[in-house]
Amino acid sequence: MNQQTSKSHNWLLVCSVIVLAAAPLVFIKGAEFSGADGQAEKAITEIQPEYKPWFNSLIELPSGEVESLMFAVQAAAGAGVVGYVIGLYKGRSEQRKNENSD
């Protein structure tokens, strides 16, 4: 596969990801996009109203915005680690290929 075809495939993938991420926001008007934690808590209280959690959070965050920020930071750090590992192995593979071809 030549480099031009590879670039067009990459752009097609990027556009597909953007469309998949934006589609629910465009097509589902007025929907409440809540997290799984809130849904799980609601389901538990419906099943067993007297349920008490085993422990409370160590840190109470001041607002939902701060909670979202912390989640985004965690996701970015995880993506950075995964990207670093993939790049590391790709670089090692390229290095071995170059050593074998010499």
Compose a concise summary of this entry:
This protein has helices spanning about 5-25, 35-45, 65-100. It has about 100 residues and is mainly alpha-helical. Forms an energy-coupling factor (ECF) transporter complex composed of an ATP-binding protein (A component, CbiO), a transmembrane protein (T component, CbiQ) and 2 possible substrate-capture proteins (S components, CbiM and CbiN) of unknown stoichimetry.
Describe the 3D structure.
The protein is 74% helix and 0% strand. It is mainly α and 102 residues long. The longest helix has 38 residues, at 64-101. The two termini are 24 Å apart. Belongs to the CbiN family. Its main location: membrane.
Secondary-structure topology with pairs:
Elements: H1 3-27, H2 36-47, H3 64-101
Keywords: Cell membrane, Cobalamin biosynthesis, Cobalt, Cobalt transport, Ion transport, Membrane, Transmembrane, Transmembrane helix, Transport
GO cellular component, one term: plasma membrane
Transmembrane segments: 12-31, 69-89
